[in-house]
Every structure is written in structure tokens, then in C-alpha cells.
Amino acid sequence: MDLRRLPNLSALRAFEAAARLESFSRAAEELFVTHGAISHQIRALEQELGTTLFARNGKRISITPAGRQYATSIRAALDDIAQATRKLQAGTRSERRLVLTTMPSFASRWLTPRIGRFIDRHPELEVELRCSAHLIDFERDDVDVALRMGKGNWPGLHIEKVLDDVFFPACSPAYNGGRLPRTAEEFRRSTLLRSEGEPWAPWFAAAGFALPEPTQGMMYEDSGMLSQAAIVGQGVALVRRSLAVGDIMAGRLVRLSDVDTPCEWDYYFVCPPAVLETQRVQAFRTWFLEELAAFESVKDMQRRPTQPGPVALAADLAATTGVRPGIDADPALPRDDGAPTHA
Prior knowledge:
The protein is of the alpha/beta class.
């Protein structure tokens, strides 16, 4: 067998995906390349093989009988390569390494202030935290656990709903010279910060405010940036409770109303079923659920217009976020791209 005559592996992957999905566009999305790249790779493969793999009719494609037969063989070969890779990684990867991934906003405003407690509890583990708002492939990306927002429709994985969320308005206590909006008219005159993931209309309806969705002003792609803009006094933001509680407890944000609206996405603990049984993932899951229980017990205590005293504030803030007022409460929190993109 002359392995030097094998077609390019990237071209074979492009062909297999296009044959399986019967679409160059969907294959491009799966492989994170352009439609043109898929088309170019398949044309090059057809020229190398001297065979037409897809019949083209304008923008529509259909796989030829020869292409279908070839795809079956290529898919089996790629599966063998993937399985061999998994076995090699399983045999060589250290059980001491735990790789986590979550949205940047959740990482910076919820997980990072707490993760030190897990590291203190399990100093034997090497923890790697990756931030991404995109779907991940556990096998390809070498990830143990994903903490994601979504609908929970990720087949073939262990999917555990761990937290729901709500929206409510908040702003800096210094916004508008401390004259914070409470009424519909005051909200109408305020600078309302916008985000695709946090529309104002549902909250206006729940609050009984006959106000339209704002159409002017800065639009933020991610929730962490939206919260930071409110913290520095740019306007009023509709924030997610899971991300804003720490800032409210630290006094960087003020919740403006007891009215909240549910988020259509929930938080999920996601991992391959086999990985769930490993000691490192079991250790993290146990700790993570404990932290969520502590968060749930105090997440709603900061309600308008009550203000806890300094001693209570310090205790509750440490329990909720792991941040000690005056020591760790740095107003310049990390800011990343963490829109509520699914899983």
C-alpha cells in the first residue's frame, strides 16, 4: 500500500461532511470553514479521483452513486481514525487534568470568583478553563465538562439542568447623579443599554410599562460587556441575575425593580457519559452543585429598596461570589464575549 497516494485528509473530511449532510453550506458550518472552501476541496478531490462525486444543478447538489459508495468507505475509515485517537488519548491523558469550557460572561462573573475554592479542595488536579460562546466537540476539542446556556438538546451527552435565570434592570448607583429611574416615564428618559440576548419589551410588559423596545443607543453583543457598561455609568441595563448578583452585592450595580422576567435559556452541566464517571469530573460536579446551592440560597436577598449592613454584606458577598468587599471587589472585572449562545 502506497500511503503517499492518499487524498488530502481535509478534502476527505469536507467530502464526508457534505455527503452526510447533503449540503456544502451545512458542511462548511460543521467544519468552521467557508462554503467556497468546501466547494474547492471537493472539486480538487474529484479531479484527483477522476470521478464526479456530486451532481450540481445551480445552487443545488446531489451525491452521485459513485460518491455515495465512496462516502460510506471514507466515513468508516475516518471513524477508525477517530476511535484510534480516542483510545490513544484515553491511555495517555493524565487523570489530573480537568478541562472546562463555558461562556466568557459566566466564566468572568460567576465561575472565576469561585473556582479558587475548588482548586484549594483538589490541589492534585490541573484545571484548565476555556471560554467560548460556540458549540464544542468533546472529542475534537479535548474537553471534559461544558457549562452552557441553551435548551438542553444535545443528544448523546450527559445533560443536567443546574440553574435557571431571570432578567431585571440595574445600573450604577451613581447613574444620573444618583437619581435612579423607577417609573415608566423615568425609564423612558433614561439611556437604556441594549443587547440581542436581553430585549427590554418582555420586562416592560411584566412591569406594566407601555414602552416600546429601544431602537437607539449602543448595542452590546455579550452580557458581560453589557453589565460592565452599566457599572461604569453608561446607562441602565437589563441584566441576568446569575451574572449581576456579585456586582449588586458589591455595590457596583443597583437593582431597580423587584419585577423580573424569565430567561428562555437554562444553564446545563454537559459532558460525555463516560467522562462523567471519572474521579476528576465527579469531584468538580460535587463542588459545582454545592456552589450553586449556596448561590440559590442568597441570590434574591438584594431586593429594592433594602440595603444590608456592612457586616451582613461582607458575609453574603463572600458566600455568594467568593469576593471580599474592599479586597477583591475590583470594579474592572474581566470582560469577554459571552452572549447567551447555546451550548
